[in-house]
Structure formats: structure tokens, C-alpha cells
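Subject: mismatched residue count in predicted assembly?

I count 411 residues in my input, but I want to confirm that the predicted structure covers every chain. Input:
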Amino acid sequence: MKTHTEFLTFNTKKHRAYVHITPQVEKIVHDSWIKNGMVLVSAMHITAGVYVNDNEDGLIQDIDQWLENLAPFRQEYKHHQTGEDNGDSHLKAILVHHQVILPVTDGELRLRTRQRVFYAEFDGQRSKRVLVYVMGE
Amino acid sequence: MKTHTEFLTFNTKKHRAYVHITPQVEKIVHDSWIKNGMVLVSAMHITAGVYVNDNEDGLIQDIDQWLENLAPFRQEYKHHQTGEDNGDSHLKAILVHHQVILPVTDGELRLRTRQRVFYAEFDGQRSKRVLVYVMGE
Amino acid sequence: MKTHTEFLTFNTKKHRAYVHITPQVEKIVHDSWIKNGMVLVSAMHITAGVYVNDNEDGLIQDIDQWLENLAPFRQEYKHHQTGEDNGDSHLKAILVHHQVILPVTDGELRLRTRQRVFYAEFDGQRSKRVLVYVMGE
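Triage response: the counts match. Full output below for your records.
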């Protein structure tokens, strides 16, 4: 069994952003020379998520609006008594979940065309990382 | 290390449906002859989820009502400008999450009795697939 | 490939509780002697979750309040016709998700300092278990 570890780095211009990362994950799988196994794509931060869904601009706006409705910015979060102002970012990350597992068969990601991998930034404008960890043989 | 890949196919009669699939996943684990490892059960579509919870009819109705409350159908989703009408299906899938990992020990799924695996369809009445991917030895 | 299985047991004093378990998971990884692979940390119950986020008291209170807002206790859940009164506990567990996968490299959990693993109890005051399953070599 082999493992292969890489990181993707993000520094988004906006506070919240949804970055399509399927091509980068595919490249890492190819570079790993692992033919059969799994890839874990996992945010290394507690204010960011990773999810699989459609790369369609309207839907991405809908997702963003929906997350803001369900986990809105609020001054009065208790977390803000520490000096932070990103309570909502933590809640959004929990809702979206911070990781996905993608199967690898014959050296390729086993995803359908519309299943695209996204990095969801909920507290951006600074350097953040995603672990891409391939495991198999 | 071995891997074993199979697919389950669904074509639900209703637009939303919750299908209990533990027996099918158990059969695939047995057929794989893998004794120790993990199974990834992952929807191959972006309007469907996979989750582990109770196989109790009342609870399933509660889950459905709750998901419709938190991620309701709305005409005005931006995604609908593409001609689609399933914006809510994508949001429900993100909320439920589209995959679970189940441990396999001694050739059996390591689940408690009330932990049952469900396929959650949020845009049915057409053919959809779930990947069941066993990895181990 | 090796696997190593252990369980953590909880019996929380409160109905809902958030228990920091990173040290216990780290110890199990060390005891497994697995150097490279993954750990699955997965609740064995359908009214509990496992998540990765900050070990900050204010945030934990915010998470609890937010979950109660989005998946509140309600008398009228259909699940309660079975005699149960924990419909909300199931919904909270689905929202948080019941498992995480953590990478192991060089015999250590690959997490950043603020990424802490939590057991989220939504129907406590009785014995519950979490599976910690290490897989690798």
C-alpha cells in the first residue's frame, strides 16, 4: 500500500468563495502513480469546507445564499468574545462538511461529469490549505 | 490490498425517496471476499445523498419534512435560469452529505443494529447510481 | 495493510454534550503502530455525531444553540409515535455528520493545531460508543 500527500493553497480575494479544484485533484492522483484506492480531500482549517456538486454559477450563488440563511453572520455569537468575528464561518463549515473521499480506479478519479470537487472558503483573504491524500496501490 | 467496485441502481417512483440499502451493501462486502478494510458508499449524482440512521417510517417522514423546511423548493433559485428546477435537490444533498464510510471487520459491516444505510433521492423518477467501493484485504 | 480497531465509550451527564477526543484518538493511533494511513472516527449511534472544529467554549455553545435552532426539539415528530422523544437528536446527528476520516503520516494524526476532534452527543445520559478504526501500514 502506498500513500501520497500534497497540499493545495488558497488565498481568496473574497471573504467567502467556492473554488473548483477537480483538475488539481486529478493531477495529484496522476502524479501519485496510485492506480486503485481512495483520495481524501480535506480542509486543514475549521472555517472551510470541501464538497462535491455542480460547477454551475447560479447554483454556486444559491449555495452561498442558502448557507448565509442557515448559518448567518451574527455579532452576538459567544465565539466573538474571544476577539474573533467568524462564528458563522465555523457553522457553515460544519454544515458543508470539511472533507470528501473520492475513489480512484485505473489511475483515475471515479466521478461523473457533473460531480465536481469544490473548496468552500468561509473566512478568506488569507492563506489556507487543503490536504489531498491518496492511499492505495 | 484489494479493491472491489459495484454499483447500485435506483429509479424511484417519487421525486424524493429514502431507500434502505444495508442488505445490498452487506452482499457486496461478502462478494468482495475482503475481510478487513472499509466500504465507501457514495452517490454518483449531485442531487442525492447517502446517510446512516434509523429504519423507522416516522423518522424518515420527519427527515423529509425537515429537509424541505431547511432547503425548500423555490422557483427563484438562480440555478433555475439554466432550465433546471431542482435547486433544492442540490441543497438537500449537500446538507445530508453524499457518502459514508463503513468499516469492515472479519468480513462483515461493523454497524450496530439500528445503524442502517440509506440512499436519499432528492430528484428521482430517473436512473441514478450509488458506488459501493470496498478496499482492504 | 494493517487495521486496528478500538472503541471510546461515553456516558455524558447532560442530554447534549460536546466532548473533545483528539488525545484519545492520538493515543489509539500510536498504539496501532500504523505509520501511514487513515483513521475513521465514527459514532456507533444514530443520535450522535463526530466533527472537527475549534476547542473553544464560546464556539461550542454557539454550535449547540445553532443546532437547536435548525433541528429543534418538537413534540410532534412522527418518530415520537413509537414512544421515543429524541427525533431532534437524529436530525442533529444528520446535520453534523456521524464520522470523520483523519490522515495518519509518520505515525501522527495530520491535523492543524486548531483542528480538534469532537464527539457530539445529542441523546446522552446513557452509554454510547465511537469506533476508532486505523487502516494503513
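The interface with chain A takes residues 1, 36-38, 51-54, 56-59, 61-63, 66, 70, 95-97, 100-101, 103, 105, 110-112, 114-115, 136-137 of chain C (CB under 8 Å). Marking this ticket as 'not a bug'.
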